[in-house]
Amino acid sequence: MPRKLECNEQREHVCEISNFTIVESMDLSEYEFPDHPHLAFGMFPHSDDSTYVVTITKELADILQSTEKLEMQNVSLQTMVLWQNLRSLDASHNNFFELTVEEGQNYQLRELNLSHNRFQTIDFVKALPALRTLDLRHNYLETLDFSLFEMATELWKLNLANNRIQTISTSGSLHLPRLTSLMLNDNMLNVLDASEWRFSMLQDLNLARNRLRYLSMCEVNHSFPHLQMLYMDENRWDCGHLNATIRQLHLLSVKPMNYYTNNGNDDDDEQCPKSVEDICCY
């Protein structure tokens, strides 16, 4: 007789399973998993050292076909096979580095939170055309081909902050008609080449804490015609270029903003001898 896994009654409309371990070598036939549309492994945000879901194998993915929303934060997840019916996945705060998708599958995933993990590549994005929000903060990305997002035409929020991104490339023109927010702060970008981007609804662009010296206003005007706020602080802006850029931003009714504040720290004032509208330049 399989052991039936019971739902904790901690949260309404969520089947929460704790005090349980899943590893790759497990015989899953020994367990009966709940047939529930919203499943959660562990008790996040509460501390739960009793629950480990190291992997979601193909066998387990087949068992969980009726689950449309899945939460697995802080459970030591490393690898996972995706299933078609899953619409929302929060697998943040793990050791996650591999999400397996199959060609030709009609994946319905719309919300994907992979923040605070170990992803170095995100090729799986090509198979997820229904994505609306993607959170990849605090991963290990170093280079990124934005052409991966070519099919993600429903995407409206993309967060790539706090990675190690040095270069972003694009193979041909890229049109993301619904994208309204793009977070690229806290990376290592020297250049932002937006010449092939057509993000016609983008309103917020965060470039804070990179290594940028220059921003092409021709590209901004062409690629982000509805831009409203541009976060620019803590880069390596050339003062001459920054002056001209901010004047043009004002003409376009775009607000140049600081994402971080120094809170009156005198050390920051010494490191920044010049500024334009509180944005440091050199």
Automatic annotation (TrEMBL):
InterPro entries documented for this protein: Leu-rich_rpt, Leu-rich_rpt_typical-subtyp, LRR_dom_sf
Pfam families in the cross-refs: LRR_1 (PF00560), LRR_8 (PF13855)
Repeat is among the record's keywords: yes
Keyword terms: Leucine-rich repeat, Repeat
Coiled coil: none
Highest taxon of source: Eukaryota
Segments crossing the lipid bilayer: none
PANTHER family listed in its UniProt record: IG(IMMUNOGLOBULIN) AND LRR(LEUCINE RICH REPEAT) DOMAINS, LEUCINE RICH REPEAT CONTAINING 53
Protein name, as recorded: AGAP011117-PA-like protein
